[in-house]
Amino acid sequence: MKSYTAICFFLAVALILCPLVSVPKAKDTFSANISGNTAEEEESYEIGEKSETEITAENVNVLKASSGQVSEIPIREYLIDCVAAEIGGSAEEEAIKAQAIACHTLLLYKKAHKDSSLNGADISDTSQKLLTAAEQQEKWGENYSVFREKAEKCVKEVENKILCFDGEPIMATFFSISNGKTENAENVWGNAVPYLVSVDSPDDKLSPNYSSTVSVTSEEFKKVLAEKGAAPSENAEEWIGKSELNSTGTVKSISLCGKSFSGTEVRSMFSLKSATFSVKYEDGKFIFTVYGYGHGVGMSQYGANEMAKKGNTYDEILAHYYKNAVISTVSQ
Known about the structure:
Elements: H1 5-16, E1 51-56, E2 60-63, E3 70-73, H2 75-86, H3 93-112, E4 123-124, H4 133-140, H5 144-158, E5 161-165, E6 168-169, E7 174-175, H6 185-189, E8 211-217, H7 218-227, E9 240-245, E10 251-256, E11 259-262, H8 263-269, E12 277-282, E13 285-291, E14 299-300, H9 301-309, H10 314-321, E15 326-331
Parallel strand pairs: 1-15, 2-4, 7-14
Antiparallel strand pairs: 2-3, 5-6, 5-15, 8-13, 9-10, 10-11, 12-13
């Protein structure tokens, strides 16, 4: 069995670098609801033979970051709260099922790699977003009954399913929108993971939230770079140097004020939505044009919903985004 020491190490980093990002919604109108599909050849998706595992699905102990208290939640309720927060009730049913399995899998991965800072809890509500029934009712309003019923139905159908690699739950990370391709884990967290590899997700480019801009004054830009050890010259037009891209289109490195930074570093420094960006200097400001939303590793929530619209089932969606993984059944 392959060692998971390296993966365990950067899971913590992954969860800090906003791995679980939801697309903002008004009354939970999923942003994937936009007409039109990109032209592409028909693909086949296989996730491999299903297998049994001894992992047990039990109640979940969740650390509430705001209070420091640990609450015990039945696994079904936990998964409903997860999909409500992560993908919402207006998403396609097969996408909701895929999201539920990813959340369940990530939970069991966390349980298998205990974090001593969680006060005995399995996971915190900062590393996995949750939306309680009361919060769902407030957010969904008149749609609450319909969306809640859909979430309950989807979770019930797949609550005993998880994704495994070498017989262990995978680190099933997910995010909102890719730049058209998902990212290799090593490009974000430094370690290659056999099931977190780049795949095409072209429909993400249809999202109304696909691109965004961030404007930074030259004074603020200079301050941020100086704090990172760079030495800005007097001429702001010289502060942007050469950039190098990964094969996925994300920024591998970029020279700013004579110092090289990774794309993930720049994303954090200037609060960009992703590490796929370009930057230019114009009228005394530095303008970032950003594509996608999230770290880009694992399953694209927008892409999953678009696949579901085309008729793909949850196992086909998971097979596409988590290569080399297999669906396993946990005991209840």
